[in-house]
Amino acid sequence: MKHWDCELRHAFLSLSEKEIKTIFKEIHHASKERDFTYEREGRYDVINLLPLPLAASPEQIRYLHKTCLLIKNALSKLIDLYLEHPEVREILPLTDEEETWIRDTWTKKHKKTRGIWSRLDFHFDIYHPNWKDTITFFEDNSVAVGGNHYVPTAEELITKIVLPRLRKRNKNIKLERNEDIRTLLCHEILHQAEIIGRKRLNIAFAEDKSLTSGITEFPSLAEFYNKKFGKQCEMKTYMVDPRELYLKGDEIYYKDHEIDIIYRDFELVELFKMGKGKHVNAMKNAFKKNQVISSIAGEIDHKSCWEALRDKRFAKIFKTLRDAGILKHIQWTKIIRDIRTDSPDGKNVELLNYIRKNKESLILKPNRGYGGYGIVIGKDTTQQHWDEMIDRGCVECGRWIAQEYRKVSTKTFPVLDETGEIVFVAVLRG
Fold first, then answer.
1. Do 25 and 161 belong to one domain?
2. Which of 105, 119, 243, 278 has CB atoms 3.0–4.6 Å from 288's, for a disulfide?
3. 197 domain residue, yes or no
4. What pLDDT digit, counting tens, does each position of 290-322 carry?
5. For residue 239, what are the domain limits?
6. Which of the four pLDDT bands, split at 50, 70 and 90, describes residue 232?
């Protein structure tokens, strides 16, 4: 893999300064055209796409694919454990309203297909000789998953704009794109519809249209499905706000269109904030009939999932992860609370005391946060602030976790600075 790193980097850096700047301009223009953007307070910013690709080997892809499938299979069991075991509810706390919805809508029929579409966030040093040892899974995202449009679009831009120029410098450079996530999601939707007996395919991509900050993928996804799969699968995709949904009899409708599957970009707590209109009954009915992706099981995606997977009390349930050696890739994680438990090295410790004394090797995070908000890295903060955050975690029960710190690798990439000149910056590799 070091060979490919050198080959790609050498080919890119052998391009003239003028051509490299042209690449940046073409990528920026194409990104804007393809809605490779992020909305911030009503302003659409083009996402910065680094032009130098990273190349994973077939062996790496096979290993990561197998590992991710095993982890996702284990995570899909958490909703049943949540309903059956009080100790799991302590690790994966939900609001009373969320728990009521889960108990009201999760049925035995859901076990035929759990309808979870998720993204596992992890890091590994792609060119490290012992790359398996560098793999660390940070968290699961099974609701409002970003990347369905961004990832294939990024690969397409790199393939069309950058790779042809690199091949002129080195004919041995032959990289293949990954499977298109949009197609994989379509297969998931088709599978879900088939299992629940929906022959027509009216799909609602549902998000809060009043938001002025966040990912901008949904309209692009809806357009892609209508163009590529509309006639092929007799599929029609609609962009909807959850508040536009309503029940007619036992069926969910958007305007005059009966909806078969809802792909959602909101959590339950966000749905509750949208008010108590008729859409609430429509969504609850859709969850109960397993017409939603991700299903209600997607709500169990807290960072403290890792604590449940590593918990020795559930060793038999997650035996496959242990036997396959996958737990080494999952960070030691604990909900901040006053208990005795195991430390990262397996010793029985008083958790709060352990966290206070080992800040150099730990980090604190909001259990259900995202975007890096609220993360405290022990080695980079004062003992006073560290202790204050631990106290906050005790007061805000279930909302904060302690997690072992694992160093992530960086890689130097060429970028354009504010003056339009080429500079090299170190970027974290996830």
1. yes
2. 105
3. yes
4. 999 999 999 999 999 999 999 999 999 999 999
5. 58-145+179-299
6. confident
